[in-house]
Amino acid sequence: MARILVLYYSSYGHTETMAHAISAGACQAGGQVVVKRVPDLVPPAIAAKAGYIVNQPVPTASVAELPSYDAIIFGTPTRYGMMAAQMKNFLDQTSQLWAQDRLVGKLGAVFTSTGLQHGGHEATILSFHTVLLHLGMIVVGLPYSYGGLTHMDALVGCSPYGASTLSGKRGERTPTEIDLEGAKFQGRHLASLAAKLAG
Ligand SMILES: Cc1cc2nc3c(=O)[nH]c(=O)nc-3n(C[C@H](O)[C@H](O)[C@H](O)COP(=O)(O)O)c2cc1C
Predict the structure, then answer these.
(1) How confident is the model at residue 120 (pLDDT cuts 50, 70, 90)?
(2) Closest ligand 1 atom, CA of 75?
(3) What is the Å distance from ligand 1's center to 68 Cα?
(4) What are phi and psi of 63, to 5 degrees?
(5) How many angstroms is it from 23 CA to the middle of ligand 1?
(6) How far apart are CA 37 and CA 40, in angstroms?
(7) Per-residue pLDDT band at 95 (split at 50, 70, 90)
(8) Does the domain made of 3-198 have the CATH classification 3.40.50.360?
(9) In whole angstroms, what is the distance from residue 173 CA to residue 7 CA?
């Protein structure tokens, strides 16, 4: 059974909701799935003022545990067109793993939550892929076999690069069914590929 880590950062819960949908999809494909988040960096007073969800029940991951998974799917909100500093800070602590090839050949994938339709959801995922490639991971996207990618009748997230949702300018939107199904599809896809590799 392939071990899958769904690792995310979320300030307002949209990425977290997508993380649980990714996890549900990976479980459907028989993966042994663990959902964790990366630690916050924002001082608690500022986080409270900005309305961040604090005391999230999901445990935080350690960098040291990453090699114990066959596949890792990373979730981050878009921050100025790229991943959140909290996620980058976590990844910047992997240099020992990089030096020892500990993540080489593992599967890696990315999903995101972005405020606006053209606010950078694809850019966030694609620039995140650069880090995965430096770590020697095999990048997995969201193939067009997920029919939701061709949906044009409503405002929805997701792209061939990975699942995404659009939170709105004030975080007022919630992930659509297309977004959640895309997240499940990507989770299933990743877990089934991981099972083949692990087998
Ligand atoms: C500092 C900052 C920068 C942001 N930059 C962008 C951006 O470049 N494009 C965009 O569409 N939304 C941007 N947003 C909105 C976030 O993407 C949005 O809050 C996020 O999708 C919510 O995800 P979460 O609920 O998981 O925290 C930004 C938000 C913050 C706080």
Answers:
(1) very high
(2) 26
(3) 31
(4) -60, -35
(5) 22
(6) 9
(7) very high
(8) yes
(9) 22
- Residue with CA nearest ligand 1 atom 18: 115
Q: For the chain, what are the domain ranges? A: 3-198
Which mutation among 20, 56, 78 tests ligand 1's pocket best, with the greatest number of atoms within 8 A of CB?
78
40: its two tokens: 């916050």
What does the alpha-carbon distance between residue 103 and residue 68 come to, in Å, rounded to a whole number? 9
Q: Is the CB of 112 under 6 A from ligand 1?
A: no
Residue 43: left if φ>0, alpha if ψ -120 to 50, beta else—which one? beta
Average pLDDT estimate for 105-126: 98
pLDDT tens, position by position, 3-25 = 999 999 999 999 999 999 999 99
* Pocket flag, ligand 1, residue 115 (CB < 6 Å): yes
With a 6 A CB cut-off, is 114 part of the ligand 1 pocket? yes
Q: How far is CA 155 from CA 70, 74, 118, 137, 181, in A?
A: 34, 23, 11, 32, 15
